Amino acid sequence: MVTDTLLRGTPVVPGVAHAPALVVRAEVSPEAIARFDTAQYADTEAALAAYDAAAAAVADGFVRKAAAVSGDAAKVLTASAGLAKDKGLRGAVNKYLRAGDDLLTSVRSGIEQFVTVFTGMGGLMAERVTDLRDIERRVIAQLVGEPEPGVGAPESPCVLVAEDLAPSDTAGLDPAVVQALVTERGGPTSHTAIIARQLAIPCVVGVAGATALANGTLLLVDGAAGTVETNAVDAEARVAADAEQRAALATWEGPGRTADGVPVKILANVADGESARKAAGAPVQGVGLFRTELCFLNRKEEPSVEEQTSIYGQVLQPFGDDRYVVVRTLDAGSDKPVAFATHDGEENPALGVRGLRLSFDNPGLLDRQLDAIAAATAETGTEAWVMAPMVATVAEADEFAAKVHDRGLKAGVMVEVPSAALLAHRMLQAVDFLSIGTNDLTQYTMAADRMATDLAHLTDPWQPAVLQLIAITAEAGRQARKPVGVCGEAAADPLLACVLVGMGVTSLSMAAAAVRPVGARLSTVPFGLCEEAAEAALSASDPVAGRDAVRALLG
Fold first, then answer.
1. Which member of 295, 487, 498, 530 is catalytic?
2. 295 is catalytic
């Protein structure tokens, strides 16, 4: 193949696209900022009132966009709306105004203060820096009288290229027009990656030099290989082959199994009743991850047991036949603060009191949630399995399992902390199943911030060290004859799914858009070849070598 340019990044969403580049540099025009008359807001109270109005307008815009989408996109936009009106951010802006800074400088300084704090926290909180910068640009645009910057609505097919994309840029994209996403920053679990998966748009992140490409340059994006090419001579043939393959995948109706009939449960990730109802129409055998905390991000007071029962019942009800729902107890903390549960002022929330740890000094929080889950199960007749996030010790697993079993439910734990993987065989003496959360497991194993572009190669779930921990966990499940699933973003990668099954993973849970591609891919590969793929990936020196070896093996 002859190409003028070949750029590499981290593959996120598989698929091949060929279209002109639309390079987005979403900034407020310097001319508008230069024309802005700061003297009109010399009075501190007037300046603060102008900031309040601008922040409210930005938040309202996020809310409108959230109402037009669903699932993860809606949740991310709702969180951005809350951040735009955050009292702490307003207080920071007010502090700089009272120190004598002009309005625009105070906005920038207030945002920068939060950026420094979030960056210092690392982990998932650092992921919100992109959101803060997006809010800064939009508030300033409101103040200077310009339209808010952003992607807009492209009218002709394109490959969207940017340094980074905020959730407000990606959530409303039309996959029929935006053929692929390419960013210089971000990792495989960034907000851009999560929404791209939901929209099923081919996506490659962490592509150095991407924004140097000229607008209109024809790009061939391969979301499985993680490559961006210019002047690819066989582009149309590759796009046609990919389209043919996608069409074939769209006809897959389950159930999940390998080519030689080894069963693999294909499950959906859901966040609320609406996403559960949509997922129930897909060829899934249930829900592998119900993220309960996403129901309560905007709640200041803990809902009663009765209210929680109603909320959980809406998720359980659509699966009331022979399917089941895995309910994760509150994973509050870090990037998902819940006012009635999360601890304030932690220096590093990603490594702090989050998930199950919140119940250590507030056991009633967990007890009431378990009571509500049990009540919802009784009301709907749907089988519920319950798992705890951020379990690090066997003692934690024992105590949690006892509480769940007392309510007549199946108990499991998330394998996100490396210690849980290393002790998986002992965890399984207490619990009925394990579920591997590859997003956090990767971050904690590789000691790499998910949003650090320079470290995106470390936050890749194909890292051999991460795969080794998954293999240890899966083998513990095989020996105990208990199920071990994967519910992180890794499960949505059709190629990696074959590797995971070869290790002994018994279920894969993912966004509904990924169900058919993953299920169809598995149906073409015999279990023995999945085992060979697992060995190839585990033996590789790095993620790129692992992908190449497995792709060569499976075709």
1. 487
2. no
